[in-house]
Amino acid sequence: MKKLAIMALACTMMAACDKTEAPVLFPVEDFQTTVEGKDVSLYTLTSGDITMQVTNFGARVVALWTPDRNGKYEDIVLGYNNIDNYVNNPGERFLGAVVGPYANRIAGGTYTIGEEVYNFPQNNNGQTLHGGLKGLDMVVWDVKEVTENSIVLYYLREDGQDGMPGNLSITMTYTLTPENEFRVDYTASTDKSTHVNISHHSFFNLKGEGNGSIEDLVMVINASGITPVNEVLIPSGEIMDVTGTPFDFRTPHTIGERIGADDIQLGYGKGYDHNWVIDRKGDGVEFAASVYEPASGRKLSVYTDQEGMQFYSGNFFDGSTCGKYERPLRFRESIALETQKFPDTPHHENFPSTLLNPGETYTHTCIYKFEVQ
């Protein structure tokens, strides 16, 4: 009897050790509404060890729960806990959203295709940022299909919306895989030549939303160059060698190790807010970057078929607004890792082209892989 009791106690202790704190989902009803006559809701995906909630307003990742090395779950993306704060955002606009049809910046809010000049809203220091006033983040996407681990979204951006040419037909699929990957696949076509550069804009904190600085996270970026910028973050057109600079993450460094260095590029971005030129070997999906949080053991790796990745270190958050858990969204407490073509490519012939013509198909794959170490 004593032996059986000891075995039972051991089993109970083992079960207790195996227990994890499961994600607490946000209620669908807090996201159900209509915007410009289209229905908005909240969708839950799960696979492997990760659970994600997505709204079709701006195709936004509202929450993303992953475990630490002890099996404890945290929601590691920034967001709001109701749809009104996304539609009428009190602070950062792009939380968890798809951005485009031209992610990042277009100098002067204009570009020329052939002999036609197109002008767009200048919504960021005289530039057009992430598609203008009504980018892909501020519209309702049609939900074409939902499964346990994926959602297929569609949007037709009409010719002339915010000045951009072409009826742009976009299909985007979010998939969670058994290997703990969050995969984003884009395809797009147009009936008029237009520039396309779509990206995903989740803000990650591997400690959990609102749980502290990202400066102690260990970063690797597979890139030997960046596209340097001017004081309003528009590229000069050069490719700058990162060797010997605070931008060289080819070997691991903490984000905070050199972020305060006396460097003109860091001054322009108030930290890291630059496009890295990925050292690619071929045409397929390849490793771009990783970031590791030592205390929790969470690691995020980024893979893509794109030439660039914007790494932004949350330099413009000031704690004046709160996220889903009523914690302030503070300075350098999140990062964005946006796979992309290069910023302002329409003005730089040496950059990989972003021009999409009728009969062509734009494609883009980005994979965020989650592990614990």
Features:
single chain, 373 residues, mainly beta, Beta-galactosidase, Chain A, domain 5, nine-stranded antiparallel β-sheet, six-stranded antiparallel β-sheet, 3 helices, 29 strands, 37% strand, globular, disordered N terminus
What do you see in this structure?
This protein is mainly β and 373 residues long. The chain has a single domain (23-372), classed as Distorted Sandwich (Beta-galactosidase, Chain A, domain 5). The chain has helices at residues 2-18, 83-87, 264-269, and strands at 33-35, 38-40, 42-47, 50-55, 60-67, 73-75, 97-99, 105-106, 110-113, 116-119, 128-129, 142-146, 150-157, 168-176, 181-189, 194-195, 199-201, 203-204, 218-221, 223-226, 240-241, 253-254, 273-278, 286-292, 298-304, 308-312, 335-340, 355-356, 362-372. The protein has a nine-stranded antiparallel β-sheet, with no helix packed on it. It is globular, with a radius of gyration of 21 Å. Residues 1-19 have low confidence and may be disordered.
